[in-house]
Design goal:
Helices cover 31% and strands 30% of the residues. The relative contact order is 0.12.
Length: 500
């Protein structure tokens, strides 16, 4: 009979303190030690999502953590996903399928019905693995939200599993954050907390000695380690939190400049992570027309509210700037919602986003129609023009029609693991404007190199013949090594396995 699986939960003093990376690193360490390990986050709020092999939608962070475990992502790793559509509402996705758009008040009323689905997913993960590493969300002591909690200490109490609290020292005030978080917990939850991890430290750790001793003495809990601030590990970002400060918005001389339009509802911007890692390529995210005017290529990214973002770029005359650049031969690319915006019309008669019809940029001879059903599927295929293989995923409402002989971009030969023959995307006659529903196409080496070299030739820059020097899997090894070097691994292993 299989021994009952172990579990550990990582919560934080707030959003953006590094919980997702710590969970990924612990998952990688345990996988390297031979354990069957899986990540879990009951509820995630993110605009960057992923599609599982069986066509279900989960948060990007849990897909990244599954990769760190060396396994395919599954919907049980993130049973509830909220994708913001406005400042006060989100699309609610349960077990990988959207159940509708809700305001915050509507969702809180609905939340009590979700707990059973959360525990069902958790039970399946525990049955299939040796260890489950659980991530919390935001802060576990938001007193106004606590009675509705399905993601933080309610999970720990349900499992009676050990908990570590992560704090970000780079933001300042980490000791107050950690002690305050612990202090606001009821006694039953405090007993589950075994200690702290201080994250994103810059400088000489010996300067922290007095503070760490004070923290342990005051709290009665252990400090499991101090993780240094790093810049050399590249992991997919979970969401647009701190997007303004983390993303470049400067044109650089001497190489390619790719401008991603920073839409108000930008989604799945991890599509462009791999472009940022290419030598001689500068990817900037902006709405500034002066910067857009100097781009070698403009990308309209995915959007969680395509109609609102299309109206936004039209209202701010950014669409006119893009059309002028395209007319002068500048590369213009649209991904998913951005692809829809490049066409002649975006039609939403069913009210999926906003019951209306909007004129697109007219750069592609296409029309897009929203449908109630959300398409979430992994795909494989090849480029129509060069034959380079591509693979990725689709995640969108509706479909796009090519008109008047408009040519596709990809021929998809596999969707959801099944053989098919489907034409995807569209391009204009000169070939400088194209769009696709396939997220992740730039992750495919030969296609990416061809795309970039075409831009280089247009600029008169030497083409790149180098091979891909970046391997995502190696980044998970780096995170695991970082944690091994800076955490008390014996102590961590002890609390996971229930040792005193």
């Amino acid at each position: 009979m299989k021994e009952k699986a172990k579990a550990i939960q990582i919560v934080g003093t707030g959003s953006g303190v590094g919980k997702s990376v710590i969970v990924a690193g612990i998952c990688r360490m345990l996988a390297q030690e031979g354990y069957r390990v899986a990540p879990f986050k009951a509820q995630n709020m993110a605009l960057n999502s992923a599609v599982t092999p069986d066509g279900l939608e989960i948060g990007r962070a849990q897909a990244m953590q599954a990769a760190a475990c060396g396994i395919e992502p599954c919907v049980d790793m993130n049973p509830v996903l909220l994708k913001p559509t406005s400042n006060v509402g989100s699309q609610v996705i349960v077990h990988g399928k959207p159940i509708g758009n809700m305001s915050a008040v509507e969702y809180y009323k609905y939340k009590s019905r979700i707990w059973e689905k959360v525990t069902q997913s958790l039970d399946r993960l525990l049955a299939a693995n040796d260890i489950v590493v659980i991530e919390g969300a935001g802060s576990p002591v938001e007193v106004n939200l606590k009675k509705h909690d399905i993601v933080n200490m309610r999970i720990a109490r349900h499992l009676k599993c050990p908990v570590l609290i992560v704090g970000d020292i780079d933001c300042g005030g980490v000791f107050a954050w950690l002690l305050g978080t612990l202090d606001l917990m009821p006694d039953v939850e405090k007993k589950l907390v075994k200690g702290f991890i201080i994250n994103k430290f810059r400088g000489d750790k010996s300067l922290l000695t007095g503070g760490l001793k004070f923290l342990e003495r005051r709290s009665g809990k252990k400090v499991f380690g101090v993780v240094p601030y790093y810049t050399d590990i590249k992991l997919p970002e979970e969401d647009s939190l701190f997007f303004d400060t983390r993303k470049n918005d400067k044109i650089k001389k001497g190489g390619l400049n790719i401008v991603v339009i920073k839409l108000p509802h930008i989604a799945n911007f991890t599509d462009f992570d791999i472009l940022e890692r290419e030598s001689g390529v500068n990817v900037c995210y902006t709405l500034e027309k002066k910067i857009i005017s100097k781009a070698d290529c403009i990308i309209l990214p995915g959007s969680k509210n395509t109609l609102a973002d299309l109206a936004f770029i039209d209202r701010n005359t950014i669409g006119e700037m893009i059309k002028k650049k395209a007319a002068r031969g500048c590369g213009v690319v649209g991904i998913c919602g951005g692809y829809q915006m490049l066409g002649g019309k975006v039609i939403d008669t069913l009210g999926v986003e906003n019951k209306t019809v909007l004129r697109g940029l007219g750069l592609l001879d296409t029309e897009s129609y929203f449908q109630k059903e959300k398409i979430t599927v992994q795909v494989e295929g090849k480029s129509i023009f060069k034959g380079f293989p591509v693979k990725g995923y689709e995640i969108h409402h509706g479909h796009t029609r090519r008109l008047n002989g408009c040519k596709p971009v990809f021929m998809l030969n596999k969707r959801g693991g099944k053989k098919t023959s489907v034409k995807d995307g569209a391009c204009n006659s000169p070939g400088n404007v194209w769009g696709t529903y396939v997220h992740g196409a730039f992750d495919c080496l030969d296609f990416r190199k061809s795309f970039l070299n075409r831009l280089r030739k247009k600029r008169g820059l030497p083409v790149s013949k180098g091979k891909d020097a970046f391997f995502q899997d190696e980044e998970y090894d780096k995170v695991a090594s970082l944690l091994r070097e800076n955490l008390n691994i014996k102590l961590l292993s002890g609390i996971i396995h229930g040792e005193r």
